[in-house]
Design goal:
Layout lengths: L1 E10 L2 E7 L1 H6 L5 E5 L6 E10 L4 E7 L3 H7 L6 E2 L1 E6 L10 E7 L2 H14 L3 E8 L8 H5 L3 E6 L6 E2 L2 H11 L4 E5 L2 H11 L5 E5 L15 E4 L2 E4 H4 L2 E3 L5 H8 L3 H11 L14
Helix pairs in contact: 5-6
């Protein structure tokens, strides 16, 4: 059992949980993730390790409540526990040793770029973070990233920071200051837009992918993605890949395979309902 020692609401639907996982805290590296299972019959959910505190024996998980399982996780209070946490899984982030790195985070993806920025900062790399949200209340991890370098905040409605998308700020930064590498994590359309922006500029771009994942060991094949016309598995080959080679259209299509089932499960969590859906089409 992994006891929750701290809980903090970051935005209207994003919650931070600091949980006991001593062995994982000791060996995790930036970019790696865990798979959590709240209880014996619960869904297995992949979550990036947003931070770790080896001395305290804890790791930090940042969870966006979008369905039944994630809503149950974020409802946990200090003193309650998660039954299983498996990890660390996946390849660590490939980091440069010098120069200028730009970390682009959209929404909950900002929590994923945080450990990447941490690792780069420790190496002495100059880090600029560009983070965004719909409005000020949706912007997360700004203080943590400011401790690691410059931060540019963007909001869709202009209620805080710069009005507009993170890609607009990235375009301005690349044309004025430049960068040796870009790391981007967020909604698939955002990561695709970043890759399309950096490709003609020949700026290397790493993205962290979030396909459907079950076991985290490459056995189920649910997380397969096409990268450079080759089939890769996000759990064991990633989750980070060259953004210029990812087939984002296929990724978006596969992410929608079980959307109807996910919506029905969320509705059932709120009260009685009937389960009667057709089987998903093969992807």
């Amino acid at each position: 059992m992994h006891r929750v020692v701290h809980r903090r609401q970051l935005s209207p639907n994003v919650t931070l949980l600091e949980v006991e996982a001593a062995r994982i805290a000791q060996i995790r590296r930036p970019g790696q993730f865990v798979i959590v299972r709240l209880g014996g019959n619960a869904e297995r959910i992949p979550l990036t390790i947003a931070d770790a505190h080896p001395a305290a024996g804890t790791i930090t998980l940042v969870i966006q409540a979008v369905g039944k399982s994630t809503r149950e996780l974020v409802a946990l209070q200090p003193g309650q526990a998660i039954q299983d946490i498996a990890g660390p899984l996946g390849h660590p982030t490939e980091q440069i040793d010098a120069g200028h790195a730009v970390c682009v985070g959209g929404g909950v993806g900002t929590a994923v770029v945080h450990p990447i920025a941490q690792g780069l900062h420790r190496k002495g790399v100059n880090v600029t973070s560009i983070i965004g949200g719909r409005s000020r209340e949706w912007v997360i991890f700004e203080p943590e990233l400011r401790a690691l370098g410059d931060v540019i905040v963007c909001t869709d409605d202009g209620s805080y920071g710069r009005k507009g998308f993170v890609t607009d700020a990235l375009k301005d930064l690349l044309t004025t200051v430049g960068a040796d590498i870009v790391y981007a994590v967020g909604p698939v359309p955002m990561m695709r837009a970043v890759a399309n922006l950096t490709r003609p500029l020949q700026v290397r771009t790493i993205v962290s992918l979030n396909p459907v994942m079950v076991d985290g060991t490459g056995m189920c094949g649910g997380c397969r993605v096409s990268v450079g016309a080759e089939t890769r598995f996000a759990c064991v080959d990633g989750p980070e890949f060259d953004g210029h080679l990812v087939d984002f259209d296929e990724l978006m299509d596969r992410l929608g395979t079980y959307r109807e089932f996910e919506q029905r499960a969320a509705q059932c969590a709120d009260g009685p309902c009937r389960i009667g859906l057709a089987a998903p089409t093969a992807a």
